[in-house]
Design brief:
It is a single chain. The chain is of the alpha+beta class. It has 2 domains: 56-79 and 88-215 and 306-363, Nucleotidyltransferase, domain 5 (2-Layer Sandwich), CATH 3.30.420.10; 223-292, no CATH class. It has helices at 2-10, 16-24, 27-32, 42-52, 56-73, 167-181, 199-207, 301-307, 311-323, 334-357, and strands at residues 78-79, 89-90, 97-106, 122-125, 138-149, 154-162, 189-192, 211-214, 245-249, 256-259, 265-268, 275-278, 281-284. Strands 3, 4, 5, 6, 7 and 8 form a 6-stranded mixed sheet that branches. Strands 9-10-13 form a 3-stranded antiparallel sheet, with no helix packed on it. A two-stranded antiparallel ribbon has the order 1-2. Strand 9 (245-249) and strand 10 form a beta hairpin. Helix 5 (56-73) runs parallel beside helix 10.
């Protein structure tokens, strides 16, 4: 029954009766599941799933073991800059750079019924590129808050909450929980979008020895400055109210050097109509404004290169929904929804592990499986 339940997620089959119907015409899968000619009834499968939802910790243990195997196999991957590259460079280990994000998925319940058949679900704002500008799209369900490896596109851990939970407050909870379950996880950088932008999150991440690479919200002040001193991307402004240029970071002190742009900037002299120029420079310490300045300046090439890897977690969520049953399921209630999410992550990782064992790293992130 456990193998049969795995097949349901691996082949992205929504309904139990559709899964059993598929078994009738596929002897090979029946043998893989150890069923032979005996096919369980739909009610028997439903009872098994209901019992399993009470023991999600067992499924989570399976997930941990698969993650550990992935950790051991990832160092075998090599990066070729081009086909003629004779000396490929090793890729970073699993968890060296991590990303955090959330995705909202709906429950299998009608929110307009009274009483609602899923009392644990809540309304949440659904962020989508398809949402029309100026409009807010709402969905009734849950959120998966996940931490993943940004380089290799492999999920590391997650929590599931009602859809109305704020993303920003979940960052410390998710990061601590995943590190507790994976003691070897010591990332060098954490990537997140502006939904996680807060001074508390920057301090928490940096306090763990991790570089926060978090996109910053636009300034709320009318003058378009952060704290009246820094431009939208965090450059300090000079006396002429122009953003200063970033020059370099002192590797010993961690302070950043900024200089007035080449040629100076226009600065009106007081009491006269003459135009003068300022040609100043300043050293800024991230400790004075960790959120705006950051240990790694957000306008530097290194910051942009790291942040570009954040999109890997978006691809993981798409795979969960389109290939691993996180969307279009028949689960209701936090208990069964948690099992649904855990199975989605487990079967995603299992497919990635199979690809690595087969030396098929080119298809590491391709989750589609077809049985004939």
């Amino acid at each position: 029954m456990w193998r049969l339940y795995l097949v349901k997620f691996l082949l992205n089959i929504r309904y139990n009766n559709a899964l059993l119907e598929y078994l009738h015409g596929n002897q090979e899968v029946r043998e893989l599941c150890g069923l032979g000619d005996h096919i369980p009834s739909e009610s028997a499968l439903s009872r098994f799933v209901s019992r399993l939802a009470n023991h999600t910790d067992i499924v989570e243990d399976c997930l941990l073991k698969v993650t550990d195997q992935l950790r051991n196999l990832v160092p075998t991957l090599k990066h070729h800059k081009d086909k003629q590259d004779q000396q490929p460079t090793p890729l970073p280990p699993l968890g060296a750079v991590v990303a955090i994000d959330s995705t909202l998925f709906e429950t299998y319940a009608n929110p307009n019924r009274n009483p609602v058949s899923d009392p644990d679900a809540r309304w949440g704002v659904k962020h989508s590129s398809r949402t029309k500008e100026g409009k807010t799209e709402w969905a009734f369900g849950y959120k998966m808050h996940m931490l993943s490896d940004a380089t290799h596109g492999i999920p590391l851990g997650f929590t599931i909450t009602p859809a109305n939970e704020n993303d920003s407050t979940q960052l410390p909870k998710v990061l601590k929980e995943v590190q507790n379950r994976l003691p070897w996880l010591k990332p060098g950088a954490l990537l997140a979008d502006r939904g996680y932008d807060s001074l508390a999150n920057h301090k928490f991440v940096y306090g763990l020895g991790i570089i926060p690479v978090i996109h910053m919200r636009k300034p709320t002040a009318a003058d378009g400055l952060h704290d009246g001193l820094y431009a939208e991307l965090g450059h300090p402004v000079c006396m002429g109210m122009e953003p200063m240029e970033y020059v370099r970071t002192n590797p010993n002190s961690g302070t950043h050097l900024f200089r007035c742009k080449v040629g100076g900037c226009p600065l009106k002299g007081q009491g006269t109509k003459a135009i003068t120029h300022c040609d100043s420079e300043t050293w800024e310490s991230p400790d004075t404004n960790l959120r705006v300045l950051g240990p790694l300046p957000r306008f530097s090439t290194a910051w942009k290169r790291l942040y570009a890897q954040r999109m890997s977690i978006e691809r993981i969520f798409r795979s969960f929904k389109h290939s691993r049953g996180l969307q279009g399921h028949c689960a209701r209630g936090l208990r069964k929804i948690t099992l649904q999410g855990t199975m989605s992550v487990l079967t995603y990782q299992a497919t990635a592990l199979t690809r690595l064992k087969a030396k098929d790293s080119d298809r590491l992130r391709r989750m589609s499986i077809k049985m004939h």
